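Why does residue order matter? Because the sequence determines the fold. Keep that principle in mind as you read this record.
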Amino acid sequence: MPDKKMMEFAIERGTPPWRYHMWTAFAALVLPFLVGVGGAIIHPGCECVEYSSTFGQPFGQFTSPDFPKPYDPGIGCVLYTFTAPVASASGPAISWIVELTITNLNLPPTSTCGDGDHLALYLHLDRGEINEKTPSNGRLCSLPAKRSGRYGGQAVRYYSAKSSLVLAFHTNKNAPTGNHPSSNHQHVDSASFSTPSVTSNSTNVPYGFKGTYRFIRKSKFRSGGQRIAGSVCDYQFISGGAASRQDQQQQQPTNKFYSPLYPSLYPARSRCLYHFYGRYQERVKIHFEKLILGEEDVSCLWSEDGVKVYDGGDIQSPVIAHLCGVIHHAELWSSSSSLLVEFYSSNSSEHTFEGFEGRYSFLPAARGADEYDDIIEEEDEDEEDEENEDGFIINPPGVTSSTTWTTPTTSVGTTATTRRRTQMTTPTTARTITFSRPINVTTPSIRRVQVASTKPTSTTPSRTTTTSTTSRSTVKQTTPSPRTSKLPLIIAVTTTATSEISDAQSNLGLDTNTSSPCDRLFRSDVDKNGTFTSPGYPAAYGPFMNCNYEFRGHGRERVQIIFTDFVLHHPHDDPSEKPHHPWLKQSCDGADRVTAFISVGGNKEKIDDFCGSATPRELMSNSAVMSLHFHSTTVSRGSRGFKARYSFVSNFGITTGEQISSSPCAFRFNSTTSTNGTFWSPNFPGFYPRDTECHYFFHAQVGERVKIVFSYFDIEGMIPCGLTSASDFVEVSNFMTVDRKLPRYCGLQKDLKMESDGAFFRVTFKSNDRFDGTGFFASYQFTPVADAVTITRRRSSSPASSSPYPPGCILLFYLLAYLIS
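Structure:
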C-alpha cells in the first residue's frame, strides 16, 4: 500500500491522486525489470573499492572478497577502480597509466564465459566511472588457456589507455560454494586477451582471485615518430642522417613505434599507417619485438586484424610481410629508402588484442647490420634502472618488469633442433627425388645490381707455411678479388675489412671475439647470386678452420643455397679411425661439418649439421638473412671441401604461375593462361623454410573445375595438422576463407587428389618455427564440366518422352486451369 503521508504530500503539491498511483505502480513493477536487465552488465548493488596513489605506495595488491578463503557467491558485484596519479599544475607534465597483473585466478567453470562468475575489464576510460552502457574490453573466466609458446609462462597483465581502469567482479548467486575440483586455469572470452596459465598453490584451491597493480609512466611507450596532422594514428618517421645516428650513441633515442593505445588493447575499427623515410642510399630496418593480433592458428589471408609491411612509400608497393596472430619475432629490411607499415583491426570491440611493439632504424645501404641496436638496448635498461631507483616504476613482489614482453626466455646461445620430430642423428642423406622441375639458381625477375664494394680488402702474411705441393692456381688465390661479395676461391690467408666482419658477426649474434680471416659477408646490394667455397677449394682445406659465411638480403628476398660439391672428412670414412669411433656413423660429432643457422624468435637457431660426402639438400632462409659456419678438425685427410651457389630470391624458388605483389608469397594460376601445369612448396625439393605461408590461387572459367594431384607430399606434422599438434600443414578450400568440408593435410600422403566445387580453388602452405620437411610437388588441370541445360535438352528430344514435363504435371495443370475458369 502506498504511504499515506507521501500521498497527502503529493496532493498538497497539486498532484492528482491517479498520477501518484500510476508512478508508484511504475516504480514497483517496471523499474525492477529494467534494473534486472542492466544487472547483467553492472549490478545495481555493486560494492566499490578504490585504489589510487593516495595510499602512499606506488604498487599494491587486490583480491576477491575474503581471499584466500572462498568468496560468498551472493555478493553479486564488486567494482575495483584503479586511478593513476594526475600531474599537478606546478609539477612536471607526467602522464601515468595503470598496470594490472592477475597472479591467481580460480572461478567456477562455465560453458560460456559470462554465464557464471567472471571478471570484466574496462581499459579505455576517460574517467574511473562506468554504467550499464559502458562497453567492456572482455571478460575473464576459468576455462582452459589457449595460448602457448613464448607468452605462455608470463603473468596476465592489462594496461589502461589513460589514467583509470575498472575491474568488475560478477558472481552468480546460484553457484555452489567450495573449492575448485581441478587445477587452476583461466580463459578470456572472445579472444580478447593473452591467455597464459596463471598460478595456483595446489590442485584443490578455493574460488577467488588475486593480483597486483602499479602506476607506470605513459612516456615509457612513446613513439619516436610524429603524428600526421588530421589523423588519429598515422605517424611519419624521418631519418636524421649520419648526424642523427651519431647522436644516438650519446643520448637515449626513441626509435620505437606501437599499435594504437599500446600497451593497452588496441581499439576496434582502426587503420593506422606508419611512414618511414630514409635518406639517399639508406635502408629501413624494422624489428617487431612483440606482436599479438589474434589467435596463433590463423591465416593472415582472412584475419580481421593484421599488419602489412610494404617495400616502398605507398600501399601500391610490394608486400614484404603480412603478419597476424602471434609473432614472437620478425625483422624486415627495405630495398629502398622508404617503407610503409599498415595496421588494421576488426569492427568488433570484443575481438581486440594486445597489439605490437616495434623498433626501427635507418642504415646505410651497403651495411648488413645495425651497430646501434646494442647501444639502444643497454640504454633502455639503464633508463629503467634509474626509474626504479627513483621510485617511479617499482615491481610488486613476485612480479617481473614489463620489459619481459620483449625478452625471450631462451638463452643467448644457439639452440639446436632436429630436422624431424623423431630423434634422428643421421646426416641428411634422405631419399633422392627426381622431378622435371629445373633448379634455377638465378631469378629472372630480379635485375643484377652491378655495384662494387667500396671497402678495400687486404692480405696479411700467413703464419702457416705453404706446402710445396700447392698448385699454381692455389697460389693465385692469395690475391683477393676487389668484389668481396663474390669470391669463388677462399683460403685462410685472405682477410676482409674489419668493419665488414663486424657487421657479419652482428647479423645473427656471432661472437665478435672469434672472427676468422676466412669469414665472408654476401649482400644482395652487391650481387644477387654467386658462388662460395671452403678455404683452398678444390685443394684440401687446413685443420682447425672456423669460417663464417653471412648472407644478407632485403625486402621479400630469401637466401637460397645449393651445394654443387661436398666432400668433408668424417671419421667413419677413415679405416684407421673406424674401429675407435663406431658410433660416429650416423652423427657429425667429431667430423668436419657445415652448420646452417637462421633467426628464430630473435635468436640464432641451428637448422642442421652437414658432414661426410653426402650432398646436402637445398637450403632456404626464413627471412632475408642466413648464416653458415664451416668447422674442420685436427686432420682433414686431404678432403677437398665444398662448393656452393647462393641466390637472393623473391619467388621462394617457385617459377610457375603469376606471383602476386600484394602478398609476400602468393601465386595465381589462370585457365586463360595455361590449362595445366605444376606447382610446389617453397624451395622444393629442398627443405622448405620455416615461418612461411604461401598461397596458390586457381581461377577457372565458367563451366570449368580445378583438379589437383599431389605426386609427392611430405609436410612435417601429425593429425589434426594444426596448433595443437605443432604441425605444418596444407589447407585447401573452395573459398578465400576456411572450407569446413575439407580437412588440413600433413605428414606423408600418397595419391592425394582433389577437385574444386566451382571455378575457384585455393591451396595454402603454412610452416611454423619448429621442424622441417621436404614439402610437396603437385600438378593442376582445368577441366570442363557438362552443362546441365544441355543435358536436359538432350533428354527431352528422346522418343521416350515428347514433353519435357511428366504426365502428372500436365494433368495437374489442366485441372488448375479448369478450376480457375
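The CA atoms of residues 8 and 17 lie 9 Å apart.
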